[in-house]
Structure formats: structure tokens, C-alpha cells
Amino acid sequence: MNRFAALIDALVYTRSRNGKLDLLAQYLRETPDPDRGWALAALTDGLDFPAVKASTIRALMAERVDEILWGLSRDYVGDTAETASLLWPEPPVPAGPPPTVAEVVETLSSATRGNAGPLLAGLLDRLDANGRYALLKLATGAMRIGISSRLAKVAFAQAFGVNVEEVEEYWHGQTAPYAALFQWAIGQAEPPRTDLLPLFRPFMLAHPLEDGTRLDLADYAAEWKWDGIRVQLVNVNGETRVYSRGGDDISAAFPEIAGSLPFPAVLDGELLVRGSHQGGEAGGAASFNALQQRLGRKVVSKKMLEDYPAFVRLYDVLIDGDEDLRQRPWSERRPRLEALQPRLNPSQYDLSEVISAPDWDALTEIRARARDEAIEGLMLKRRDSPYVAGRRTGLWYKWKRDPLTVDCVLMYAQRGSGKRSSFHSDFTFGCWNGDPDAGAELLPVGKAYFGFTDNELKWLDSWVRQHTTGRFGPVREVEKALVLEVAFDSVHLSKRHKSGLAMRFPRISRIRSDKPAHEADRIETLRALAT
Amino acid sequence: MPECSTWIRPEPHGIHVVPADAWIDPARPVERALVTHGHADHARGGHGHVFATPETLAIMGLRYGGAQHETPVAYGERVALQGGVFATYYPAGHVLGSAQILLEHAGDRVVVTGDYKRRADPTCLAFQPVPCDVFITEATFGLPVFRHPPIAEEIAKLTGALALHPDRCVLVGAYALGKAQRLIAELRAAGYTAPIWLHGAMERMCWLYEEHGVDLGELRLVAGAPKAALAGQIVVCPPSALNDRWSRRLPDPITAMASGWMRVRQRARQRNVELPLVISDHADWDELTATITEVNPSETWITHGREEALLRWCQLNQRRARALALVGYEDEDD
Fold this sequence. Notes:
The structure holds two protein chains of two kinds.
Chain A: H1 2-13, H2 17-30, H3 35-43, H4 54-62, H5 67-77, H6 80-87, H7 101-109, H8 116-124, H9 129-140, H10 149-160, H11 164-171, H12 179-185, E1 204-205, E2 207-208, E3 220-226, E4 229-236, E5 239-244, H13 255-258, E6 265-273, H14 288-292, H15 302-307, E7 310-320, E8 323-324, H16 330-340, E9 349-351, E10 354-355, H17 360-369, E11 375-382, E12 390-391, E13 396-400, E14 404-415, E15 424-432, E16 442-448, H18 454-466, E17 468-472, E18 475-478, E19 483-488, E20 490-493, E21 501-504, E22 507-512, H19 523-528
Chain B: E1 8-11, E2 14-17, E3 22-24, E4 32-34, E5 49-52, H1 54-64, E6 69-72, E7 78-81, E8 85-91, E9 99-105, E10 108-112, E11 134-139, H2 151-164, E12 170-173, H3 179-189, E13 196-198, H4 203-211, E14 219-221, E15 234-237, E16 254-258, H5 265-270, E17 275-277, H6 285-295, E18 299-305, H7 307-316, E19 321-323
EC number (chain A): 6.5.1.1
GO molecular function (chain A): DNA ligase (ATP) activity
Keywords (chain A): ATP-binding, Cell cycle, Cell division, DNA damage, DNA recombination, DNA repair, DNA replication, Ligase, Magnesium, Metal-binding, Nucleotide-binding
């Protein structure tokens, strides 16, 4: 438990992704089974002890610490587990050696509402303050230290020098403490079998097409890049799952999709919402904004289903029946997809069409004319490419629509973190809500923290320092005098923002120190671009 | 109950010793000031006549230039003030020259601790408990969550991080008076003999400590040093410089901070600290409560810090206590 506690502590204070990966990889390599597996599960929210709640901790503390002193301490520290770890009255001699993670998991799993308190107390008596913190965080399932399951998988791959896509694939069928996964990773066992479970297969991804590149359309097929969310549909043994890009199971949020794949297959497609909203053509796809209404819901109401009906636009087939097609070229998979699509309900599934263009110039022309709001750009897929996990150079490209730009005025800047901790690198900018010469005000329209070079960042940082008019913690308000050209993929109406607008992927494309602030764009200009 | 409330009065900007017409650690310029130690929230410039230990006077001289009149008071020396008040200074164990002040008048004994700690500190004399009727104690870390770990553990964390990352440097934020010198002295005591690098703001105070017999080993200034020379080295700077542009000249520094506040993870994260070192020059909760028990005054007055919790502890232990509402005493990054 002490090593786990040291890991938790180090992760709390490490901001860089690489730093976290190194710490995690080292822990996974050096810690024996089954502790490392349990730790991995704890870090990725895979552990749940129903008998242990925050109230269990509070009750333990109430028996040991004056209520007022507890309240004052809890208010100051701001976290129940941390307060308790610091306030726990340590026995003069530890009640025993520190428990292993496995012992902690075993003890807490067997706990009931009746004995959870005493069991937890027994463990706390054997740990120091950091150990107690890690224990209480683990017990209540609230790590919140910025370890995504993706980061954990990358660390796992790094620890054992294995391929992260394989880790993703095998991980899904396993339960903590992942003994089979570790056995495979250290070369002691065959990979765990995955073909009998409705498992997620890592997506094939695309590289951005560099400006000026021309591809031969004899080698590459073109499709629209739809602006929804990428999903994978898996049907095995009569069970269907809908997985998001990150491998999260989102079946519950989209029951109409999950319920309408009637045969065994693994399909790749884009989840979209029917577009009678937002002025989209009837039956077509609405913008991403409409889809957002359906995202992040654990249950979905009947009204939601009616107002925002979802469907999947199919891109690819990975597995058809019991036949794994991933090693076959795209040119073979595509006819298989087309052959299978008629067996699906057209109101839930359609096909992403292949765009026919005689040559590159014609395709460029087609891309330039595309103004459908559900289109993000073009996809170019090498006709002879297998379906491989991740981003592989030369196989798939995405060719996004040219970004839109607007001139904004810098309003606030916030200090970055990690390497950028001495720089103001998060910028909030606004547009005028009328004629600035007639007393109009700036309303914030977005926030961006990339798009600039290192030198531009230095310049921006020093500009911010010299033009600060107010400070709010890490945020500085600046003189409203610097114009930034902001590029973005699209802009949507939004009730959440005072300006009524929300940008997607805003980034600083140019510093327009040449332009006076009153010549920056107005809200209405931006609103006219809204989809 | 002692009658001192008639002759010693806590006012918002300091403690007023009425018959002597003197103030203890006043927050604004006064005619006669009794100063416990050199930290800026206790020792301010512009007083007419300052009574303090020679070390504290030297520190104040460095910061403000001298006062019009200075009376150096040695530890244990009993000084007669006007109005029949006697003041005796005792070591407080906080920083070089820090003192508790015992005031005697009309048979009452009042001790004002200033800031203090009970741990050993190679840069100053240890706190000495002084029997008294009224004990006016600080409460900076007056919450039971604050228990400072042994300093050797924290020093080991620092040298451990250094060994793990030979191409980076460890940049430690430490208050320029006291904390920095104690940190350096403890590193020396732990056998760290390499040069320790200083931010320019640290320099004069370190020399002052050396002049008072505190050996800090080889110190060098960061200014002008090539980046490569700082890899694998320890650099000490004021906390305000940690995330400042100044730190860009260092080779990929590991940001550390030496402070009692580092006990609380969120406080460390708010300051972008990667390596929190729980090192404090103040008494922690256990030291505060143990000191009150040991001194065993008939009344405890609690000031600057988290008074409420210590007040509650006194109540729970049937001790007469009150919280003073003094202004202007800051946390001082301690």
C-alpha cells in the first residue's frame, strides 16, 4: 500500500502527461501481482465497494475527533478523505505492517454496512498519513487525479513494451486484477480471447492531410467526414453494444441504435441526429450541436428520442458474422458493408456514400462547395488498406474544410500549467456587441490555448504582463487593445454563453497587433456564421 | 484571574503595553516598539525606538535601515521600561534572533510568543517555556490537520528528487528570512556539500546569517550562471519567484516549496508545486497544544492564525482562553 500511496502522491503533483506516464509505467513494471492490477483498476475507476461511503469515514471520525474541530479542519482542507487522513489518531505503535493493495481490496469487498467502519479503522491504524489518504480515496472510489483509462493503457503499453492498440483490445474483456493481461504483457501467456464477448476494437484513425498534398484517386477513395461522434457497433451472442471513440459503452444513451443491430457484426460509423432542427434538410443530419443534446445521458427520455432521433452513418465493417475482415483491404470490406446494409432498418442506419470525382481538382471543387453543416470535410481512404488500429501514415487522411476566422479582442489571460506555468497561455477573447465607437461592449466568445508558436507565446505573455488591468487569482484582465485572429471549425448558438455563441476548436491563428481594437469583428458577424 | 487586561490591551494593529506606552510588533509606526522577530509582518520600519534582540535589529537594519533609537536586548536580560514594566526576551526558536517577550507589571506575568516552533533548528536558539499568567500564543497552524513531519524526511525527499533527475534542477521556494537558511543548514547537516544556488533576493540575508555564525556552506548566485551549470543542482528562491519569468533561466526545474501549508494537497497544487516540502518555522498543532499544557498559564490569548480551533481545544481542556483579532499578520508563505 505504501508504494501505491507514493504513486498517488506523485501523480497528484505531476502535471505533465509524460511525467504521469513514466510514474505509472514504473509502478506497473515494479509492483508484483495482484497489487498492480488492483491499483490499475482503482486508478481507472474500476473498483467499487458499496459498503464504504463518505459517510463511513465521517462516522469513524466522529468517534475520534471533536465535531467542531473536524468541521473547521474539513472546511479548510476541502476534502473529506484528506482531512481524515491527516486527523486520524495514529496508534503509538502501528497495529501491524502496512496492508498490501490486495489485502485492502479483499477486506473492503467483504465488508458489510455493519462492519465497514471497524474494518476500515483497522486498516487506517496500519498506515501513515499518505497511506491513509490513498486508502480512503481507493475505498470511496474517488481518485480524481487525472488518469484517464486511455492514459493508463498507454502507460501499460509503455511499461511492458507492447502495442497500445492490443492493450485496448484485450483489456476490455478482463476484470481486475487483470492477471491474464499482465501475463500476456510479460510474455508468459497467449493474449486473452476476445471473440466471444461484445468487445470494443480500437478505431482506425486518420492523419490530417497537409496543405498542398495531392493524392491519386485511383489509390484513394473519398467520403464525407461527418460531424457527429464516431461509434462502433458490436453484436455478439445476441448482445449489442455501442462504443464511443474512447471505448466507453454508450449503449444506454442510444437505445434505438443498440436495439436495432439484429445480427452478429462489428461496424464502424458516425452517430448523428436527424436534422429537422437547425434548418438542416429533412431526413439529413443535423449539426453537432443537435447531437450534443443526446450526449452524456445515462437514461434517455421518450421525448429526447422523438426530438433528437439518432442514426448511424456506416463507414466500415470490421467483423461480419464470425469473419474478421480487418486484414482485408478497404476495397473488399466496402462491398461487404454495402451488402449488409439492406438488412438494417434505414431509419437507424444508412451508408456514408463514396464520392465519385474524376480527379483531384474535381474533388477540391466538391469540397469547397460543401456547406452542409454536418460535414466537417473529406476522408481519404487508401483502397488497399487493412483496418488497423490507430493512426497509420499513408492509409487514411482527413481533409477538413478550411477553418473560418474572425478578429477578436483579447480580454483575459490565464497562466498555463507545467512547462507553461510561467506563461499566460490561455486566452479569452471577445467580439463587440454593437458599434464600439457608440459605446458597445466586448462579450467573450471563446477561449484558446494553442495555435501560436513558442515565440508568439512569449510575445503574448509579455504583452499581457504590460497591459494588465486587473487580477483574479491566476487570471489577468488586460487592456482591450490587442486583436487576435481566431480560427475555428464552426460556431453554434448556445444558451450557456453570454454572447449566445459557442465555437468549436477555436485557436489563435494570427496576432493582429496591426489592427485597432475597434475594428475587430462584431457578434453579429460571428452569429451569421452560426450553424 | 489576572488583572492584566487593564494594562495590556490587544488593539487591531498590535498589543499595547499601556503603562510603558509601548507596542509589541505594531503594524504601523509608533514611538516605542518591542519587536519579537524580523519577519515583515512583525517588524515594520518607521518606529521611533525599537527594543529587539541584536540579531533582529540587524535584520531590520538590512531591510529598513536603522530606527532612530535602537536598544539591543540580549536573551534573558531584564529591561526596565517606563511605568513600572519590565521586559525580558527569551528564545522563540522561530528564526535567527526571534524572541518571546515576558512582560512583568504589578505582579502579573504576560508572555507574548511572537511566532515560535519547538523543533530543533540549527540556525537559532530553541524555544524556552516561560511560566506566566497570560500566554499570548500564535496560531498560524492552529488546526489539528497540521502535523509537520520530521524535517529529515522532507530533506530526503528533496535530495531524492535531485538524484532521480540529474539533468533537471530542484527549485525550492522558501521565505528569504529563516526558512531559506534553515533549509540550507539542514541540507548541510544531512551531508549535502555541493554548492547551493541562490536567487539574488536571498543573498544578503544569507550573509547576515553567516556573520552571526550560521555556517551555510558554499553559496552561489544564479545570476549569470550558464543553464548547464545548474543541472542537478539545488536552487533556492523566494516563493514569489517560483512561477515567475525568472525561473525560465533554469534547466527544466522541479518546482518545490518549503512550507507548512504544503501539508494540504490542494494548497500545493494551487501553487503549481511538484515537490511539496512540509517544512515550517511555526509550531504545528501538537506543538501548540503541548506548549500551552507545558506553560500552563491561567489564561491563553490566541492570535494571528486559525484562532477558532485552538480556542475550541482550550475549552475542551477546561482552559480559559480568548481569541484576539489583530490585523496585518500575514501567512508569509510559511
